[in-house]
Amino acid sequence: xxxxxxxxxxxxxxxxxxxxxxxxxxxxxxxxxxxxxxxxxxxxxxxxxxxxxxxxxxxxxxxxxxxxxxxxxxxxxxxxxxxxxxxxxxxx
Length: 92
Known about the structure:
- Strands 1-2-3-10-5-8 form a 6-stranded antiparallel sheet, with no helix packed on it. The chain has a 4-stranded antiparallel sheet with strand order 4-9-6-7, with no helix packed on it.
- The protein is globular.
- The chain is mostly beta strands.
- The protein has a single domain (3-91), classed as Jelly Rolls.
- 0% of the residues lie in helices and 66% in strands.
């Protein structure tokens, strides 16, 4: 079953599902600064566009199309979006 998610007044929208017992979402983020918390390990892959992210440890880094990063369980991270970005997020 496909789940529809919406965050930050509709500036982030995603569709979620699972395949072979692994959960994932695909979505779009509009311009803005967004803070997220994790309840599982998350692997974020940039499908189109680019974003800056501050992961635990405080280092700000730019991620572009084809790049990915992993965020551990029970932490917070911030992303900065300058133009629309599409992403795939895997939950472990």
